[in-house]
Amino acid sequence: MELQVRKDVCIGCGLCAESCPQHAISVQWGQAQIDQRKCDHCGLCLDVCPQGAIVELVPISKEELAATLTGLKDKADNLIARIEKLTKQCITDNVQRGKTA
Ligand code: SF4
Ligand code: SF4
Fold it and tell me: Going by fewer Cβ within 10 Å, which terminus of the chain is more open, N or C?
């Protein structure tokens, strides 16, 4: 497990650095930095961060990634097909209304 600081949400408050028993975190230029070599993955910094800026990077195999992408593509294809069907239905309904008006 590797931890990463989300730079878009870290506010540089330093609470994580204060809580880290391994002194693995420093705040530079208003952003927390984690020294992965010192980190023992105790998780304290995850709990204290008020921004939820520290996240775990979960290793994933190529096969898992491919399966996830395939699942997402299937969902997207399904969604597109439903939108196309609804669009056609709307056009048909509008044409019908136009004929009866
Ligand atoms: S506690 Fe969170 S917001 Fe504060 S410096 Fe650490 S990562 Fe950034
Ligand atoms: S997980 Fe523990 S050791 Fe690692 S950076 Fe956070 S507080 Fe420090």
Answer: C
CA of 35 to the centre of ligand 2 (A): 9
pLDDT digits (tens, 9 = 90+) for 71-85: 999 999 999 999 999
Yes or no: domain 2-57 corresponds to CATH 3.30.70.20:
yes
Phi and psi, residue 34, nearest 5°? -110, 130
What is the distance between the alpha carbons of residues 46 and 5, in angstroms, rounded to a whole number?
Answer: 10
Q: Specify the pTM.
A: 0.67
Provide the residue ranges of all domains of the chain, joining segments of one domain with +.
2-57, 61-101
Query: Is 25 touching ligand 2 by the criterion CB < 6 Å?
Result: yes
Tokens of 79: 């969604």
Ligand 2 proximity of 43 Cβ (cutoff 6 Å): yes
